[in-house]
């Protein structure tokens, strides 16, 4: 939903930034923690969204896409169990030096660090597997963070980057 004054939601801005980074495919298992991104995918054109049956499959699909195209693969999963299921794809991307950007849903910012339902500290979980793990707490910094994620995934020895998206940040206007 675009607002009248050219402001965008965090979810819309994320999809715009994916398009600006030449993303034409994204692999996901839809989940409630990043509904604003799913809505933005639906409203946008230019990115084919492939829905997997399980997050591990989405991760492997993103790795395969990166290997075939030479561009960073993109996967989107929900928090908690979705994040743990996709970890095998992150590990393969790290082991095979494949550029991959994972967008993973997160609890609302007010619930971070409070042991909320399905909250995971992604820096701890993915720290040994990913080149960079970042949590975007301000929608105004989302585009810059996503551009940096793609740069890091592709630079030097390619590898995976994990971007955590608190669900309430994705509905903020920017």
Fraction of helical residues? 25-40%
**What is the β-strand count?**
6
pLDDT averaged residue by residue: 92
Strand fraction: 15-25%
The rough form would be described as: globular
Structural class: alpha/beta
Within the largest sheet, what's the order of strands?
A: 2-1-3-4-6-5
Distance linking N and C termini: 12 Å
Main beta-sheet annotation: 6 strands, parallel
Ranges where pLDDT stays below 50 over 5 or more residues in a row are none
The string of secondary-structure elements, in order, is HEHEHEHHEHEHE
The number of helical runs is 7
State Rg.
14 Å
Detailed description of the structure:
This protein has 174 residues and is of the alpha/beta class. Helices cover 39% and strands 18% of the residues. The protein has 7 helices and 6 strands; from the N terminus they run αβαβαβααβαβαβ. It has helices at 10-20, 35-43, 55-69, 81-85, 87-95, 122-126, 142-154, and strands at residues 25-28, 48-51, 73-77, 100-106, 132-135, 160-166. Helix 1 crosses helix 2 (35-43), helix 1 runs parallel beside helix 7 (142-154) and helix 3 packs parallel to helix 5. The longest helix is centred in the middle third of the chain and has 15 residues, at 55-69. It is globular and about 40 Å long.
Key descriptive features of the protein:
174 residues, alpha/beta, 6-stranded parallel sheet, 7 helices, 6 strands, globular
